[in-house]
Amino acid sequence: MGHKEYSVTDILDILRRAKAKDSIRRITRATGMDRNTIRSYLRIAATHGFTDIVPDDELAEIASAVIREVHGCDAKNLEPGACAPLLPHRELLSGWLDTEKLTLKKVHIKLGRMGVAVTYSTLYRYAREELGFGGQKVTVRMAETEPGEVAQTDFGKMGLVFDPESGRNRVLHALVVTLIRSRYLYVYLTYLQTFEAVINGLENAWTTFNGVTRRLIIDNMKTAVVKADRYEPVFTRTFLDYSQHRGFIIDSAVVRHPEGKGPSKTRYGT
Length: 270
Fold this sequence. Notes:
Layout: H1 8-19, H2 24-31, H3 35-47, H4 59-70, H5 90-99, H6 104-114, H7 120-131, E1 150-163, E2 168-179, E3 185-190, H8 195-209, E4 215-218, E5 225-227, E6 234-235, H9 237-246, E7 249-252
Parallel strand pairs: 1-4, 4-7
Antiparallel strand pairs: 1-2, 2-3, 5-6
Helix pairs in contact: 1-3, 1-4
């Protein structure tokens, strides 16, 4: 197969989604993989005993068998191209555009002063494809789900709050986990948006909800998403491992889609 070589974790994610009866189109959107590659992996998996009723504890073994069968193909080294100078500054760019609300022209000027030489069109393409810049803010009615089926999570900014440990005011964040069907939510307060904070917040939410939902919609959190693409996000390996350990499937928030991010009915602030 002439495609990028994936890991056992990637194949396992495909099998778990297929077992949950996700369509090829939905798996493609969630994983960012080519649909023909996904079909090929599923055909190979079927020859190793994969069906939608295979026990969960056998999926990892089947995924390993798929990898062993295709491991001889050469992985492609993706060339970042003109956007390469921007890659080390992703977090800085996100802060300028999302938090400080700078115009893209102003960002381009600031980058030039830093010695980051890219054209405006390259910056625009990177900001749009990687940071979701310039997209329309549209919300739609959420699709009906079964109780406990889907939850969504995202960080909210609470403002400056005095931190007794550091002796200074710090920005306090809230990781909000909301059950889609009931809109019942859990709020975890943290000064840091680290992977550890996300896991602690989710674990507390699962305890509060007395269970783990089958799916979790996330909205391009840096600790969970490598590529913040509206339709084809790339999830971090660590968060993907956590989802498989906990038994839920990750879905990204998709604007203009009934399975995307829904508006919360609860407002919160300082």
